[in-house]
């Protein structure tokens, strides 16, 4: 279809932008989807001139339709194979910044696998309505053989009043541009300069058509750099225009100088690519609408319904950082098949919460209630897989003839599925005695008998005889059951103890085995002399790296003993009103922020052991109960949020905040947990971390990069707030010292520029009452009333954040430990403990400590991302990314035998051989290795 002349070509691409759920709950939208797809198939059957339909870049639409209309599968699939319905490349249209790096890749990978049976996939980098676009998108797309990106937000291409101006003043003078990732990867970027509905409802009537096309042609030409003009024939949940061929005939008769075609993205992009000028502007990195007035970025969706973000972080972390690595370890050990089908199912359930109107928390309440259930279902499946694979590995560990352990020792294995060696506090309930009983008889006598057993004194010892200081709590008798693979369920009564200790230097992507061993008086005296590594004095906690003093207002003073830098007033709380909506935060005009800085906290020591200390602060605070009556009227009358005059009421409600600060031995961070019962409406709560560091920029963890961002926005910015997205952490540094705040599911922060330096402000809660956008939709559950708990960590560092280990600490912080008692489920796994028939790399006995993937990480700017098994090849897949512009060395040693190592990509394909275990990773590069097993 390429037009090599200067004749204008109007490409009309029929589509519907399908939000699965938004201003109506999912099943309401679902009914409309079924109606739309029925009509689409009927139209394709009836009218050969209705040539193409773009299925919104997401393969889940097919799943949703066939869930109700399985009888239409053959019909639908035929049109996909013929290319009349363009399919893929994503599973869902996700919010890029609120879903993890690996979740973005699973989305692309699963979308491609859904499309593979059809032999055709739309290679369109489709981001029609993402609330900002990740900076590494061109690199990700290029690795998937997608050479373009189509997006609707993030770049302002034109000047005031649609004037085409100098590219240096605004990011691009055209809707076409070159988009470059930090590593240098480039794709052709195309912006929906007139949005993705500029070709909807094309008139058939000549008189109306002339008015329509006079306007629309002119507006499209303002932005286009070629004669190929894009018109998107559809909009949000838009039914298809069945008379489009007739409307195009009318247009062709009215405008003979313009070629009107019912087009598709493949043809349109091919035509544009051949005629784009050489002087296209190049835009780099993240597209976050920074050259705008700041009111339309929709960034505050990062703080809408924070409970959703917390559940998402838990689900993503459990799948990509625990379930997949453990399943890969069990597979290469030869003890369990890799559960591709179950992992894909868990990912799909999780990703059904990842569309922008879902994970962003900007839908009606019914939508987000259903999301909570989906999060739970995905998590439950992941938990079961973690349990099965870790137990399968543990049952194959050879624990015979270990002198440090007595015959009656209770053995357990601690798995570290993070990409870095780490230490940490382990809590595990262990069974020290149990008796099975048949169903039916009353087990009370059995329970009493177990309860009467006098337990010995226990110690935690590793295989080398090292004794660990541990707290061992008798939990009494509890019911339990096993589910053997070859017989009916087996109930039992068990005597349990809870063991708490600090595991040290557990290998990355590996495990270490310990024993709970009965000891005598001699051994007890030996343990009592263990060195104390965390000291306390009044309101101060100290380990070898940090000194933490909890001040009278509940904030902390933190001394980094390595650099000598002291930080004051960390974790003061700030509260302001919010008269915006789920999309946008808007503080009432003239309001002064409230602060806990002048409050007096109730302080106490909660826990202290040689390996950790926990201090508690309780603040009793009163804040305004909500916005005034004017706010209700302004919402009802759809007064724009920038024009609202509402204030907060004078009446107050309590906001009592309980904060616990935890310092562990050998740790470079202070862990913080903040709990409160929110009874106020229409407000925002943040934690403030003044760094005292004077700098004009900062760094935020994003998708496969730590993005460098300016503290002060562009001159066009008028929004008083400059909140931004983060993934695992944000930090400020002056080049010699730095302050980082890591988080668990707290995706919004702001850098406040003050005379004393930059302050990191992390949003802990934002309570709002309406959806916003195009109508009036009340969302009372977005007020987030009731008990809330958030977790984050404060990490000071010296020098480079990555080389110092601060980034690694932040990445490992949210990853849970996995601990398994050996022999507990002997009935269940006695058959599965044998090597799986035909599995590569199988072995029967495993050592007491093992590491499956060892890579040199000290002083490295590399970050580990994934360990899994490729579905098509059965090969081990491992991924890293470089946080720096400078090249970094990667040396890998595998704890399994493999035939070959090769370069792979985000679609897990074999690309090229890697000759040895050492390579140089270019700046900001995402690298994936494949390991073919013996």
TrEMBL record:
Residue ranges constituting the Glycoside hydrolase family 38 central domain according to the UniProt record: 301-375
Keyword terms, alphabetized: Glycosidase, Hydrolase, Metal-binding
UniProt cross-references to SMART domains, sorted A to Z: Alpha-mann_mid (SM00872)
Keyword Metal-binding carried by entry: yes
SUPFAM superfamilies documented for this protein: Families 57/38 glycoside transferase middle domain, Galactose mutarotase-like, Glycoside hydrolase/deacetylase
Top-rank lineage group of the source organism: Bacteria
Matching Pfam families: Alpha-mann_mid, Glyco_hydro38C2, Glyco_hydro_38, Glyco_hydro_38C, Glyco_hydro_38N
Magnesium keyword on record: no
Family membership noted in the UniProt record: Belongs to the glycosyl hydrolase 38 family.
PANTHER family reported in the protein's UniProt record: ALPHA-MANNOSIDASE 2C1 (PTHR46017), MANNOSYLGLYCERATE HYDROLASE (PTHR46017:SF2)
Protein name (database record): Alpha-mannosidase
Taxonomic path: Bacteria, Bacillati, Bacillota, Bacilli, Bacillales
């Amino acid at each position: 279809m390429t037009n090599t002349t200067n004749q204008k070509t109007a490409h009309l691409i029929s589509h519907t932008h399908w939000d699965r759920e938004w201003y109506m709950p999912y099943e309401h939208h679902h009914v409309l989807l079924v109606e739309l797809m029925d009509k689409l198939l009927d139209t394709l059957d009836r009218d050969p001139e209705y040539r193409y339909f773009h299925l919104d870049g997401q393969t889940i639409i097919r799943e949703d339709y066939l869930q109700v209309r399985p009888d239409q599968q053959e019909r639908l699939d035929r049109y996909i194979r013929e290319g009349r319905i363009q399919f893929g490349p994503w599973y869902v249209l996700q919010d890029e910044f609120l879903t993890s790096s690996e979740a973005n890749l699973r989305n692309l990978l699963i979308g491609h696998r859904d499309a593979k049976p059809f032999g055709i996939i739309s290679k369109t980098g489709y981001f029609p309505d993402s609330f900002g676009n990740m900076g590494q998108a061109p690199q990700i797309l290029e690795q998937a053989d997608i050479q373009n990106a189509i997006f609707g937000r993030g770049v302002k291409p034109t000047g005031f009043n649609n004037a085409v101006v100098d590219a240096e003043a605004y990011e691009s003078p055209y809707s076409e541009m070159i988009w470059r990732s930090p590593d240098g990867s480039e794709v052709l970027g195309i912006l929906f300069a007139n949005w993705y509905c500029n070709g909807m409802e094309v008139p058939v009537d000549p008189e109306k058509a002339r008015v329509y096309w006079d306007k629309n042609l002119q507006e499209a030409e303002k932005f286009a750099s070629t004669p190929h003009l894009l018109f998107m024939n559809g909009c949000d949940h838009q039914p298809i225009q069945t008379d489009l061929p007739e409307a195009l005939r009318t247009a062709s008769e009215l405008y003979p100088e313009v070629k009107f075609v019912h087009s598709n993205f493949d043809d349109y992009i091919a035509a544009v690519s051949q005629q784009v000028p050489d002087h296209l502007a190049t835009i780099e990195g993240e597209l976050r609408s920074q050259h705008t007035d700041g009111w339309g970025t929709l960034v505050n969706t990062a703080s809408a319904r924070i409970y959703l973000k917390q559940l998402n972080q838990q689900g993503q972390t459990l799948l990509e950082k625990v379930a997949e690595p453990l399943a890969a370890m069990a597979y290469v050990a030869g003890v369990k098949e890799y559960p591709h089908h179950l992992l894909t199912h868990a990912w799909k359930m999780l990703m059904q919460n990842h569309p922008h109107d879902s994970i962003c928390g900007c839908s009606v309440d019914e939508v987000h209630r259903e999301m909570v259930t989906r999060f739970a279902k995905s998590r439950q499946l992941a938990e079961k897989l973690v349990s099965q694979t870790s137990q399968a590995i543990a049952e194959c560990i050879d624990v015979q003839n270990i002198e440090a352990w007595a015959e009656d020792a209770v053995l357990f294995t601690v798995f570290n599925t993070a990409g870095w060696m780490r230490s940490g506090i382990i809590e595990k309930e262990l069974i020290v005695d149990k008796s099975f009983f048949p169903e039916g008889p009353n087990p009370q006598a059995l329970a009493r008998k177990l309860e009467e057993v006098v337990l010995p004194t226990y110690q935690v010892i590793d295989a080398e005889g090292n004794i660990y200081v541990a707290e061992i709590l008798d939990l009494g008798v509890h019911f339990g059951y096993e589910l053997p693979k070859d017989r009916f369920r087996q109930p039992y009564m068990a005597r349990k103890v809870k063991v708490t200790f600090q595991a040290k230097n557990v290998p990355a992507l590996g495990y270490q085995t310990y024993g709970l061993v009965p000891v005598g008086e001699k051994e007890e005296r030996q343990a009592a002399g263990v060195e104390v590594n965390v000291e306390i004095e009044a309101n101060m906690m100290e380990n070898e790296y940090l000194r933490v003093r909890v001040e009278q207002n509940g904030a902390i003073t933190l001394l980094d003993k390595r650099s000598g830098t002291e930080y004051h007033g960390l974790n003061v709380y700030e509260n302001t009103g919010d008269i915006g909506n789920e999309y946008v935060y808007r503080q009432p005009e003239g309001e002064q922020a409230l602060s806990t800085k002048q409050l007096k906290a109730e302080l106490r020591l909660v826990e202290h052991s040689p390996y950790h200390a926990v201090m508690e602060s309780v603040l009793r605070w009163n804040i305004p109960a909500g916005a005034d009556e004017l706010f209700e009227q302004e919402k009802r009358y759809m007064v724009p949020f920038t024009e609202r005059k509402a204030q907060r009421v004078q009446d107050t409600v309590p906001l009592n905040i309980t904060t616990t600060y935890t310092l562990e031995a050998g740790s470079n961070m202070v862990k913080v947990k903040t709990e409160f019962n929110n009874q106020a409406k229409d407000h925002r709560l943040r934690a403030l971390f003044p760094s005292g560091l004077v700098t004009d920029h900062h760094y935020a963890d994003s998708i496969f990069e730590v993005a460098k961002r300016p503290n002060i926005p562009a001159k066009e910015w008028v929004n008083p707030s400059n909140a931004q997205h983060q993934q695992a952490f944000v930090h400020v540094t002056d080049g010699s010292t730095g302050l980082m705040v890591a988080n668990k599911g707290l995706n919004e922060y702001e850098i406040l520029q003050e005379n004393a330096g930059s302050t990191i402000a992390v949003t802990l809660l934002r309570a709002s009452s309406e959806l916003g956008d195009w109508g009036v939709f009340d969302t009372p559950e977005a007020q987030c009333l009731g008990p809330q708990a958030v977790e984050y960590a404060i990490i000071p560092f010296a020098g480079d954040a990555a080389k110092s280990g601060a980034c690694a600490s932040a990445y490992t912080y949210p990853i849970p430990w996995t601990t398994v008692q050996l022999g507990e489920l002997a009935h269940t796994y006695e058959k599965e403990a044998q090597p799986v028939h035909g599995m590569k790399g199988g072995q029967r006995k495993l050592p007491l400590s093992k590491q499956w993937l060892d890579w040199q990480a000290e002083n490295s700017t590399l970050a580990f991302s994934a360990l899994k098994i490729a579905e098509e090849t059965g090969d081990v897949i491992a991924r890293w990314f470089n946080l720096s512009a400078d090249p970094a060395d990667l040396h890998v040693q595998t704890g399994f035998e493999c035939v070959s190592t090769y370069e792979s990509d985000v679609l897990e394909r074999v690309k090229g051989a890697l000759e040895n275990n050492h390579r140089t990773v270019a700046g900001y590069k995402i690298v994936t290795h494949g390991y073919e097993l013996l």
